[in-house]
């Protein structure tokens, strides 16, 4: 008798569990729309491998148990949230801008099919970014410091303050001088001919003591600290390698070439055409290096970049772990048919050997290592306003690893 009772209760329990599973499955398939997924983003990150194991088979998923219920990490967005979080004030859109700006912009507004942006790739152009007398014509509309503010239509109720202000933060050292020339020419002509509903500045942050290895994290943190202190009202920062420029077909890039911040960090450069190798490459689905657009408050929330990575590699993976750990997901446009960005030729950097050991304890350092202690680790030596960019020179405390 007792046995029959047991079987009865066991079967009832099993049936209830089944119902629960089916209910959840059906329910979740109805509710997995984009905005909910963002709220649901609760990545869990606990180290599960030693640094030695990581070196053997490097994959961010292997290092941290990241719960990818955060759909966006690997999901293409299409046009679903394209304009949701772009302008602070929606009435200030492209139509609020003054169309008399210049013919280039006018053409792109009137005839979206024509591409007024065509990448310029001749590095022997007689342009020295550090000499304002050599500015090419395409940079004529800029204000000092590589600042661009769209002119607003006099009849529309729209103030410049209603537009997003985007600051491009570009880590740099002199070995990439040729890249910088082409970067500035291409970025300004792309941004001005195609994207017009935000103001922007290009801020180049240069490491001047190159006898110690390049430290991208310290440069970016120094640049953001400078922005905060100078009270420049940046809503959105775009962390941008100096060797990446938008591909041909600027107007056709649409969402894939749209730098404006979204609700969550927005990674634009998973697919890149490498000019030196003459081939296209799709990076792994967890890459956040290259070009990352994110809200200033999110950058502050993750405590910026780690300051510990010298030489090439893993500082971006560390940053990604920081984002997951503070409940930020990564959004991506779809890959599209052709790469939206091209990598300009440069010598490759030597990978750092210590990067994996830092990566394996990234989480434990997040609070103390970043924007919060950059003051002790790097010094801003100069701030100059050239015509096509703002130039910060930074001395990174010398360490050779
Ligand atoms: N960078 C630099 N000088 C260096 C190394 C890197 O200015 O010696 C900057 C530059 O903006 C570059 C970015 O850091 O685009 C990323 O480095 P790199 O191009 O070497 O990495 P990749 O993405 O090609 O692996
Ligand atoms: Mn590169």
From TrEMBL:
InterPro entries: Galactosyl_T (IPR003859), Galactosyl_T_C (IPR027791), Galactosyl_T_N (IPR027995), Nucleotide-diphossugar_trans (IPR029044). Residues 139-248 form the Galactosyltransferase N-terminal domain. Pathway: Protein modification; protein glycosylation. GO terms for cellular component: Golgi apparatus; membrane. GO terms for molecular function: galactosyltransferase activity. Residues 283-347 form the Galactosyltransferase C-terminal domain. SUPFAM superfamilies: Nucleotide-diphospho-sugar transferases. It is found in: Membrane. It is a single-pass type II membrane protein. One of its GO terms (biological process) is carbohydrate metabolic process. The chain crosses the membrane at residues 7-27. It is an enzyme of class 2 (transferase). Its main location: membrane. Keywords: Glycoprotein, Glycosyltransferase, Membrane, Signal-anchor, Transferase, Transmembrane, Transmembrane helix. Its EC number is 2.4.1.-. It comes from the Eukaryota. PANTHER family: BETA-1,4-GALACTOSYLTRANSFERASE, BETA-1,4-N-ACETYLGALACTOSAMINYLTRANSFERASE. Belongs to the glycosyltransferase 7 family. Catalyses the transfer of galactose onto proteins or lipids. This is Beta-1,4-galactosyltransferase. It comes from Brachionus plicatilis.
